[in-house]
Amino acid sequence: MKQIVTHADPDLDAIVSAWIAQDFLFQAHKSEVLFVSRNVPEKLMLHADCLVDVGNTYCPENNRFDHKPPAFKNRNSTCATRLIWEYLLDTGVAVKHLEHLVEITYQGDTHRNSEALKQSRIDGPHAELKRLKTKHKDTTEVYRQMVLWLRNYTKNL
Questions:
Q1: The domain containing residue 144 runs over which residues?
Q2: N or C terminus of the chain: which is more exposed, having fewer CB within 10 Å?
Q3: Number of domains in the chain
Q4: What number of other Cβ atoms are within 10 A of residue 144's Cβ?
């Protein structure tokens, strides 16, 4: 079982990057997503199969995808979702169709204000995550429901 670690009370960047890791990076393996404090315990840092949006490390060859310092001087220059997506593109994984999702996730994570992001907050991924967090208290259930929604959403992209 592959372990993907991201932060508790996940934002869209944590959710989407964990989903991309689960469905595309580890597509041939069973995997689980663990939600931990932003200060990832050393044991998980060393033994997790993938870290997304936690750990302050960018090391794609070790499946470490975080955009916060010291990994990147400016945390707003990218996001975890974009980092894992670009890595998968570079390694030949068929994820090009996720480009729109990656872009609105990045915009939301870095406080941009595009029309696409405004629409996402009305009826797209941002709105769906907010709805699910209101409906479910269990983070794992929020993630599970969001993954189902994302799989359906990206079929149409």
A1: 2-155
A2: N
A3: 1
A4: 14
